[in-house]
Amino acid sequence: MATRKAPDLPNVSKDELLGYYRDMLLIRRFEEKAGQLYGMGLIGGFCHLYIGQEAVVVGLEAAAEEGDKRVTSYRDHGHMLACGMDARGVMAELTGREGGYSKGKGGSMHMFSKERHFYGGHGIVGAQVPIGAGLAFADKYNENGRVTFAYFGDGAANQGQVYETYNMAQLWDLPVIFVIENNQYAMGTSVKRSTKSPSLWERGAAYGIAGEAVDGMDVLKVKEAGTRAVEHCRAGKGPYILEVMTYRYRGHSMSDPAKYRSREEVQKMRDERDAIEHVREMLLTGGHATDDDLKAIDKEIKAIVNDSAEFAKESPEPALDELWTDIYADVAPQDA
Ligand SMILES: Cc1ncc(C[n+]2csc(CCOP(=O)(O)OP(=O)(O)O)c2C)c(N)n1
Ligand SMILES: [Mg+2]
């Protein structure tokens, strides 16, 4: 039964949990494939993988409704897949091909989808935070009941523009959720070395903004906190800060020598806190899925990811005259 609540799965149905498993696995396998294609020289330039952080975006997307908006940093492939963008279009963009979301002209950090209300992909640390408030300003002005998720990292949380944005967002009661993805590092700098006020969400108190910290390796807890945040925003109470405690398993980008942390530290997180394993165990021990059920999902995900890689390899590079297109927008701002 699709909507039955299993007795040991409080506040979640078996099908929802299977959906989270599937969505998180899609991100992980997609990112692993992107890492491989990068190693083969098929992806060039910057490429920041999201492996380890899957429960953050999957949990928050579960709290979102159709029409809500999202904007994030350069670590963005997971956000795109989670909001329903097509794996083929994302992989083809990573490889710089015509079939990509930006026709192969943007790459990893520059993809957008009007249909899925995904506003990037931003390489300048913290730049997406005021953009997120701007999106929320438009929604408030248009009285459409939408909420914006503005994702940024622990490093970005030390940016001045974040605090200017907090002030204005609270002043104008903007429906924006500031999601701090605290993965404990900003490139090679541990959060312990970058601040003496490590509870990042509490900084919102200086502006009167409500918020909380949440375990980002537990997709159900993320969804629960996300739902609280969404309700707060939709009720017209202004912005909300969620500090989601997470961890990235891979380097900052594909060119990270990883000398700032030990292998043991990473392995411990993988062994003891992995979000996908956690859901897998819940499904198996609760008797909600068999090994074979999960194997079938693994197979289905592998097929989607392989198909996206094949599509990306077969798609041609953009034609030279594409250099002169898509430079200026030809839509009036109110249509956007
Ligand atoms: C304004 C600006 N300063 C510095 C950089 C270089 N830079 C790129 S990512 C990064 C670290 C950001 O870390 P964090 O916000 O924690 O996000 P994470 O990479 O962990 O997702 C830095 C310093 C940049 N892109 N933009
Ligand atoms: Mg970080």
Give a topology summary.
Blueprint: H1 14-39, H2 54-63, E1 69-71, H3 77-82, H4 87-94, H5 128-142, E2 148-153, H6 160-171, E3 176-182, E4 185-186, E5 189-190, H7 191-194, E6 210-215, H8 219-234, E7 240-245, H9 263-273, H10 275-285, H11 291-314
Parallel strand pairs: 1-2, 2-3, 3-7, 6-7
Antiparallel strand pairs: 4-5
Helix pairs in contact: 1-2, 1-10, 1-11, 2-8, 4-11, 5-6
This protein binds thiamine diphosphate and magnesium ion.
Q: How many strand segments? A: 7
The largest pleated sheet is described as: 5 strands, parallel
Elements, N to C (H/E): HHEHHHEHEEEHEHEHHH
Low-confidence stretches: none
pLDDT averaged over residues:
95
Structural notes for this entry:
This protein is 43% helix and 10% strand. The protein has helices at residues 14-39, 54-63, 77-82, 87-94, 128-142, 160-171, 191-194, 219-234, 263-273, 275-285, 291-314; strands at 69-71, 148-153, 176-182, 185-186, 189-190, 210-215, 240-245. Strands 1-2-3-7-6 form a five-stranded parallel beta sheet, sandwiched between helices. A two-stranded antiparallel sheet has the order 4-5. It is globular and about 50 Å long. The mean pLDDT is 95. The chain binds thiamine diphosphate and magnesium ion. The site of thiamine diphosphate has 14 residues, from strand 4.
Short recap of the structure:
This protein has 336 residues and is an alpha/beta fold.
Features:
336 residues; alpha/beta; binds thiamine diphosphate; binds magnesium ion
